[in-house]
């Protein structure tokens, strides 16, 4: 029996939903009249989220001088969009952190996800992207489709992975043949079900073939490069292997030089331990 991405996403939303605090934050962000003060009040009303956001803001990951002690100050310094993205990252990881899907090494999964997020962010900064922080969240969520597949179709998902490792055939093609859909399509379907910002859903859905991700092909290209750079153990591949395996379109769209990408890899690797401590302390 094969499965559609939409079916797997709908089955997941019956088990897992984002907390109300995220939807209240998104409502303020989407409101043309939403204000810094209103957003700070919404986040501050949830002590758990407030604590997590302030931990992230005051970490070496952001490197702000001085300590930020209140949500109003955090929103003023970071801006509304970045606070939204931090809330999204912390709520999604918190929702899935307790999941232990059959046949899945969850520790390895989250380490690789964190590394992809860091690398996408570092590469975006190398490209001069103003909202590079958004790519951290995109990279962290880029493999969420595999979490869903291992929740609902663990045997088929594992079979595709084993065949990929032994034969060298493309993982997404094997998943489409064995499961009925690939990780990118499942990730896009879930983020669409959850009504997350469309840019995340589109870029994650197009990470295999970035050219089809318009108008978010740039973000999709960065996620594509990050995936080819990070292996299953969250270790970085050799640069020559990354260049050889990644789509030429991704290099063309981002205009990244492999040497600059190597620098992004080094930056991402140096931050992994700190980010694991922030978002996944149980696995750090």
How is this fold's topology laid out?
Blueprint: H1 5-15, H2 20-30, H3 36-44, H4 47-57, H5 71-78, H6 80-97, H7 106-126, H8 133-141, H9 144-152, H10 154-167, H11 171-178, H12 183-193, H13 198-205, H14 217-229, H15 239-245, H16 248-254, H17 258-279
- Number of DSSP strand runs: 0
Helix content: 55-70%
Largest sheet: none
> CATH fold name of the largest domain, please?
Hypothetical protein af1432
The CATH architecture of the largest domain comes to Orthogonal Bundle
- End-to-end gap: 38 Å
Uncertain runs are: none
Structural class: mainly alpha
Tally of alpha and pi helices: 17
Instruction: Give the number of domains.
Output: 2
Which CATH class of the largest domain applies here? Mainly Alpha
Q: From the alpha-carbon coordinates, what is the Rg to the nearest angstrom? A: 18 Å
Strand content: under 5%
Order of helices and strands: HHHHHHHHHHHHHHHHH
Mean pLDDT across all residues, rounded?
Answer: 92
Overall shape: it is globular
* CATH superfamily grouping of the largest domain: Hypothetical protein af1432
List keywords for this structure.
2 domains, globular, 284 residues, mainly alpha, single chain, Hypothetical protein af1432
Walkthrough of the structure:
By secondary structure, this protein is mainly α. The chain has 2 domains: 1-16 and 100-284, Hypothetical protein af1432, CATH 1.10.3210; 17-98, no CATH class. Helices cover 69% and strands 0% of the residues. The chain contains 17 helices and no strands. It has helices at 5-15, 20-30, 36-44, 47-57, 71-78, 80-97, 106-126, 133-141, 144-152, 154-167, 171-178, 183-193, 198-205, 217-229, 239-245, 248-254, 258-279. Helix 7 (106-126) packs across helix 17, helix 10 packs antiparallel against helix 11 (171-178) and helix 14 crosses helix 16. 45% of the residues are buried.
